[in-house]
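Q: What would this chain look like folded?
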Amino acid sequence: MNRSAGFTLLEVLVALVVFAVGVLGLAAEAASLTGALARARRAEEVTNAATARLERLRAGACAIRTDGTDAVTQGSTQLARLQWEWSDAGDSTYRLRLLVAPALAPIRPLSPETLSTVVACR
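A: My prediction, written as structure tokens:
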């Protein structure tokens, strides 16, 4: 019996199929992570804009309390809408309610988030 050393054609083909399936799995995972990273960046942008708006409104609350809306954009894409309203809580205090409504829905739709605070003016 004389067996030559090496791999058979079938072994090479099976190894290539296993390798190809692994590479396709890695490519799909990379695409999924890229999408998740983009959603996280959009969420960070909206959170930063809402925080900045809330601080600006709180800073000027004792002088001007007007309701309003603002769009949060990234480039030419609208990411969310900020809507705020004031109400008199009595005794020189005012309640500020900031609604953050996302414009872009990821895979599962997001519900609007509400931030509220009380500002005392003396």
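Helices lie at 9-59.
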